[in-house]
């Protein structure tokens, strides 16, 4: 009979409490012993929204308590009202603000299902909750809700209640009111919406953050179909044939892409400012929030990231994810940030929060420490089997292809990401020198003094990675990646300003020598793709960590430094044959292809001179060949 009979007593008590509260509310109603001022229904002031500005001073997002465009009940089509009745309150025109019949039905359903599967709030109660009460779920708040609902019904007509409710109800994405929702979703007034669009609006209200069509078109469509069925089968507002035809239609919106720009970054900013300023100031204080984001670059990044990840999900699995962050090479300002494939499924900002092992992208720091210690890129070491005792344990590093090629220059070792030579370099200069240098890069994680550091056995975020590579693009100067500049009041007074860390880590001669070698590898990429894909000089390096758990690429042009990775959130292996030039580099190439870079070449330290040397012997050659590499001396 009942799925969970042991809960019958619990729900009986709940029924008794709700019934008692109803009677008490009715007592207040009849005896006129309780009264409140409901003028707020007619004079509701939501304050001013706070605006997020891009690097050109244009709005790209907002934080707000309310975004309404009130309409009268006469402008609201009958089928929209019917849709809300079907979705939210079948007995709206029959009850007095509280539906005792609905409460009993809900309790019986909940007893039968053994859980809270159905509520009993009327539209009037929902309006009361929107305007006067908090979101708590205790009996005291429920009692107040019922009392207020009874008084609202006494003082206002059903049409007035509906009009106010439909102008205040929340639809997700910062949208309040049916007119604002209709304009945002379909670019037209609510008086012109169709039956299926009306059902879509009514369906959103149950869980705005789950059914908003801008974010969840499929979920919104499924919920809409439930509302259409209720309109047809339960209330006879439409015939069943019409219902079935409408259920076949897709939910399609015409909202601008800027509406949902950089959702992971917006959420990070919201959390930070809400904690700093408080909800009231943030959502209704009319603040101007100056961010570093470039709207055009952000749209390009999101488009290319999503496009490539659709293919990567077919190649790996649907839960593979990643991040991209791109900053101005000179200022450290974040110009584009993608925190994951689907913000609505997971709001975790992988660009700022996901800590991944660096692997080979860390190697430029090892070589920078070596150059700082007096070594040169034309020095030669031998790629051969290596055994090192670490804490009484034998450590035998290997190259990614398990082969050894003999003598090679440090330049070739870095350009080809050779593991053995990187380990030998670290052992030659001492691990502490690499640790000391790495600690100046402001990494979010700890740098342990172990030989495996030569292979990148430390973890950090994509933000850490982009800050690391920007040092080599910015002639040795570290500038902290940041995305907020200042916040002003509605009166234009600046009351918060970001403080950006900036300091020199490497002498420009050292950082430029490392950057020159990294540019060699990118020149080979440049020669193998159409010129329009990469028409500027660049530096960069790929990295694949142990068991191919993370696939990295960090690259820089004279204007932008970008870091991106691919991996599973649970850090399991991506599998075999994860080849970065074919897996992750194409995302960066597609991103840069769409950019119009004014600066085409890096300007290296003028005190250095370019020298072409043999990749293996380090001897200077007088001509460019496949076996030669340019270095700066």
Short description:
The protein is 41% helix and 15% strand. By secondary structure, it is of the alpha+beta class.
Summarize this structure as a short list of keywords or feature phrases:
41% helix, 633 residues, 2 domains, 23 helices, alpha+beta, Beta-lactamase
Protein architecture, described:
It is a single chain. With 633 residues, this protein is α+β, with helices and mostly antiparallel strands. It folds into 2 domains: 5-35 and 66-255, Biosynthetic peptidoglycan transglycosylase-like (Penicillin binding protein transpeptidase fold), CATH 1.10.3810; 299-632, DD-peptidase/beta-lactamase superfamily (Beta-lactamase), CATH 3.40.710. It is built from 23 helices and 20 strands. Strands 2-1-3-13-14 form a 5-stranded mixed β-sheet. Strands 5-4-18-17-16 form a 5-stranded antiparallel β-sheet, with helices on both faces. Strands 6-11 form a two-stranded antiparallel sheet. α10 (217-234) runs antiparallel to α11 (240-247).
